[in-house]
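2024-03-11 09:14:02 DEBUG pipeline.ingest accepted 1 chain
2024-03-11 09:14:02 DEBUG pipeline.ingest length=419
2024-03-11 09:14:03 DEBUG pipeline.predict start
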Amino acid sequence: MHRHPLIMVCTCEIAGRVRGKAFPAGDLPSRLVKGVGWVPTNTMISCFGPIYSTPFGTTDDLMLVPDPATEVNVEFGDDSANEHFFLGDIRHLDGKPWSCCPRDFLRRGLAALKAETGLDLVSAFEHEFVYTGVEDAPGAPYSLDAYRRQGIFAEALIAALRSAGTEPDSFMPEYGARQYEVVVDPATGLASADRAVVLREITRATAHRLGHRAIFAPILSPDGVGNGVHVHFSLRDGNGRPAMYDAKGHLGLSLLGARFVAGVMHHLPALCAITAPSAVSYIRMRPNRWAPTHATLATQDRGAAMRVCPIWPGGEPGRQFNVEYRCADAAASPYLALGAIVWAGVDGIRHHRKLPHGEGAALPADLGTALDALEATAEAKTWFGETYLSAYLMHKRGELASLAGLDEAEQCARYAATY
């Protein structure tokens, strides 16, 4: 059978799904300039498929333009088509960024951090997921047996991630039934969110080629174990030197580092609407699930919303030092999740916010409450812009309305089918 290679250019918008359009590989030089056609209402496609409402209607034309730095081209050696795609920016036809481009939301936040402090953000995403190619077994959490029974999946995944241009850090069996965790090395700025998107898609692609699924849904059943995404971050100066650590500072944080983290803590209830953006995200974030329920900052506590991570023997402490944001899952677009953290951190620096002491306020118990908190946050209108914030709230409230009448088990099943 004759075949012609195709390349897809993609975006990861409000629903956290990766969508785009493919073109013949020979057209790449021109597509790097003009991209592919896109329309505003595409950003309102829900995670379940339907567009429940849209402020954009049927009008206007945009272009989705590949970023050359994001190319992924993975050959699996099984006669299937390569995973060949770029991540891209949504722009107007004159080349200017569209106000609702998720990569530009993060890019603007990083630029604000740079302008305010001269610093860059280095970050990494830890992802938990369920692999359907292995049966659950008693006593399996963290076990060699659970690692063994996934067969060649892990080795195929690590090879594919390397081929995709990311540097895998670790792979492990996790606590939940058939649950695993994969981590790639940190990256600076926008590249970290790009890596998170690539990691999810290559994990799914590897499982697919083995006849199975990698499910990143926040939780698969109401009494199950959730799949979290933990975002580790630190700050660097223009020469790449650590700027977040001070051995004499509270919890080891420098003055700017403390203000950045204080900003994130201050805005946590609103941030949950962006970083934990599904109805079932809040089933995961209940007591006794090793997930945050309050806006707390602590050292080496995996129940805290923000965890100051340990410094291991050997190496420079400042380069190891990082803070982990634990109120996220893979229903979120990595660009929006990381962008929200950055924007909140910049707000903390601008307003000289102070770290809280003791247990903080309860986090939202459901998505509706989180969305109300986001809407009531005046700063969010500056971060997003009025159009993007309005579209985000409309999108997520439409998603919530679509679940009316479903019990928690039915809701979990719907999200498991799509993520």
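2024-03-11 09:14:41 DEBUG pipeline.report The chain has a mean pLDDT of 95.
2024-03-11 09:14:41 DEBUG pipeline.predict end
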